[in-house]
């Protein structure tokens, strides 16, 4: 099938590459000339395990191309995916200007019946707006479909090739048949394609992310209570997760959720509900808990040291989660800004996100090439992202490098008893 992807950011690039790898001819379109030149030269502007190799393979086999010419990319495409950004607006709503602009451009470019697919995360009713925008500029027959993505950064290829489910909001049998054919290779193990109306598909994406964010904030509230009553949140988590009605995923306490989805999508869902006269009090509480949690480690440090003025701290982990270089809404930003704001110096290490962090912090902090380089003479270490390479360090080496052997573990990757045995002062989340 001939496919065009409008927007070569995280979602568009992963989707386009995976569709190409299943035998389709895919053109990825973007207005960013620098990004397109990088991709044409075999360089990938984002970090996602396995993606660079897969792009190179499909470019070499001439199934995947990159262009800034939308009309050229859309020409003869049977399906056009809109995967542009939907940034957060001033009131928390999703800003649809890029989606509508892309829809109008697609409408002017199509020459035959085309399925136009909203792949971006968009509010309920966006498919209607896209349909209206296209209809104003073309008399060519088309359908608008909502096909939200459910990709986890760091595991996006596996999620796309082996999805839990594929959600497709389509109003015509013709569009459903084309989308079903396109996704058939990815659901051969009987994971379902869920066909529904466009508004239900749009809401499904927001509801899913809001539920996951709720689980995280719930466990962070439980962790705060654990510290007050002298319980251990790890035992509580295991007791909860063993209940089949609850399960273990997204029950890990920490320094809050971040990234491009959860913060923005929870706000957008709250804003959408408010537009219809409904207050989602539970999700507003989820947001409050998350903002509180991002400040927790710095508050623990202030309580321990009294003042952070003149102190020097190491930070392990900058990306909002492991296996990505994404710094959007990363808890590390709140932690580091809190430390700097209280007069401390920071030296940070992340396996892949340092270049992205430099766009956030500039030269206000130092960047360490290796984890141990971030420990020289520090008064304490903050663990903010749970990269695997941080889980089993040389504790004796760490202690010898640090001025004070104090660890603020924002992801509970270390065991309190062992840290005490090693001679560290240890602060976890919800641990005794």
From TrEMBL:
Domain UDP-glucose/GDP-mannose dehydrogenase C-terminal, chain residue ranges per copy: 314-416
UniProt-listed SUPFAM superfamilies: 6-phosphogluconate dehydrogenase C-terminal domain-like, NAD(P)-binding Rossmann-fold domains, UDP-glucose/GDP-mannose dehydrogenase C-terminal domain
Entry function: Catalyzes the conversion of UDP-glucose into UDP-glucuronate, one of the precursors of teichuronic acid.
Binding of substrate, residues: 150-153, 205, 250-254, 258, 321
Active site positions, chain numbering: 261 (nucleophile)
Pathway participation: Nucleotide-sugar biosynthesis; UDP-alpha-D-glucuronate biosynthesis; UDP-alpha-D-glucuronate from UDP-alpha-D-glucose: step 1/1
Catalytic activity reported: UDP-alpha-D-glucose + 2 NAD(+) + H2O = UDP-alpha-D-glucuronate + 2 NADH + 3 H(+)
GO molecular function: NAD binding; UDP-glucose 6-dehydrogenase activity
Protein name as annotated: UDP-glucose 6-dehydrogenase
EC number(s) recorded for this UniProt protein: 1.1.1.22
């Amino acid at each position: 099938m001939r496919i065009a992807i409008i927007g070569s950011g995280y979602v568009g690039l992963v989707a386009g590459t995976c569709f190409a790898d299943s035998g389709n001819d895919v053109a990825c379109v973007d207005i960013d000339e620098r990004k397109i030149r990088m991709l044409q030269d075999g360089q990938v502007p984002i970090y996602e395990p396995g993606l660079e190799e897969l792009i190179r393979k499909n470019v070499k086999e001439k199934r995947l191309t990159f262009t800034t010419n939308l009309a050229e990319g859309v020409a003869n495409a049977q399906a056009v995916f809109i995967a542009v950004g939907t940034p957060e607006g001033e009131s928390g709503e999703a800003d649809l200007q890029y989606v509508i602009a892309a829809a109008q451009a697609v409408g002017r470019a199509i020459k035959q019946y085309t399925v136009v697919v909203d792949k971006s995360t968009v509010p309920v009713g966006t498919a209607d707006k896209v349909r209206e925008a296209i209809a104003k500029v073309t008399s060519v027959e088309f359908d608008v479909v909502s096909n939200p993505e459910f990709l986890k950064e760091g595991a996006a290829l596996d999620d796309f090739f082996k999805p839990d489910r594929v959600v497709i909001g389509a109003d015509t049998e013709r569009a459903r048949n084309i989308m079903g054919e396109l996704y058939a290779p990815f659901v051969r193990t009987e994971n379902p394609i869920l066909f529904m109306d466009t508004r239900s598909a749009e809401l499904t994406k927001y509801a899913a992310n809001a539920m996951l964010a709720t689980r995280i904030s719930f466990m962070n509230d439980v962790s705060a209570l654990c510290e007050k009553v002298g319980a251990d949140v790890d035992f509580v988590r295991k007791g909860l997760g063993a209940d089949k009605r609850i399960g273990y995923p997204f029950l890990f306490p920490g320094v809050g959720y971040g990234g491009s989805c959860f913060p923005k999508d929870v706000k957008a869902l709250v804003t959408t509900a408010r537009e219809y006269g409904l207050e989602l009090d539970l999700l507003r509480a989820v947001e409050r808990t998350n903002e509180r949690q991002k400040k927790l480690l710095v508050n623990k440090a202030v309580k321990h040291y009294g003042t952070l003025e003149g102190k020097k701290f190491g930070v392990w982990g900058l990306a909002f989660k492991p296996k990505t270089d994404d710094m959007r809404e990363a808890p590390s930003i709140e932690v580091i800004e809190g430390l700097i704001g209280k007069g401390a110096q920071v030296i940070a290490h992340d396996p892949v996100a340092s270049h992205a962090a430099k766009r956030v912090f500039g030269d206000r902090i130092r960047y360490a090439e290796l984890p141990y380089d971030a420990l020289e003479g520090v008064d304490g270490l903050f663990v903010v992202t749970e990269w695997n390479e941080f889980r089993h360090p040389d504790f004796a080496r760490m202690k010898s490098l640090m001025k004070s052997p104090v660890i603020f573990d924002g992801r509970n990757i270390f065991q309190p008893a062992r840290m005490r045995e090693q001679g560290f002062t240890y602060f976890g989340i919800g641990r005794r």
